[in-house]
Amino acid sequence: MSPNLSLATQAWRFVVTGGLSAVVDYGLYVGLHALGLQRDFAKVLSFIAGTTTAYLINRRWTFQAPPSRSRFVAVVALYAVTFAVQVGINHVLYTVWADKWWGVPVAFVIAQGTATVINFVVQRAVIFKLR
Questions:
Q1: Residue 37 φ then ψ, to 5°
Q2: pTM for this one?
Q3: Which CA distances in Å does 78 have to 8, 34, 35, 71, 84?
Q4: Where are the alpha helices (DSSP H) in the chain?
């Protein structure tokens, strides 16, 4: 991690990267579900695509870290945890708000927001911490 990047810069870059990754995730989620894929399976595939996008950009741009097998494994483990958190929150909220026109986007934003905060804190404080 570059010592020249402040917390604010890293947070801003993480949010920008997260926004792009959320577009990938949400677009694929909605598209796959519209094509007839079961909702949770569509979310699984879209989450994998979105988090892969986020990892690749964040490693290089946000945290400016060289490729590392141990970091990659740590991020995969973190994403497995945030995957469960995000899919669980999305499922519960979608079920609660299934009859509301705004249910899908609000459930998605809350689930994505929770996963994003967890990911930033753990990546910055643990995985890409300046050694």
A1: -70, 140
A2: 0.70
A3: 22, 29, 30, 10, 10
A4: 7-34, 39-57, 69-96, 103-122
* CA dihedral sign of residues 118, 123, 125, 126: positive
From residue 51, how far is each of 6, 13, 80, 95, 102 by CA, in Å? Answer: 23, 15, 10, 24, 24
Tokens 């905060």 found at = 117
Contact (CB, 8 A) for 112 and 82: no
Mean per-residue pLDDT, 111-128: 92
pLDDT > 50? residue 10: yes
Long-range contacts of range 95-103, CB-CB < 8 Å, 24 or more positions apart? none
For residues 87 and 47, the answer to whether their CB atoms sit within 8 Å is yes
The CA distances from residue 84 to 36, 108, 127, in Å, are: 22, 14, 19
d(Cα 63, Cα 104) in Å, to the nearest integer? 32
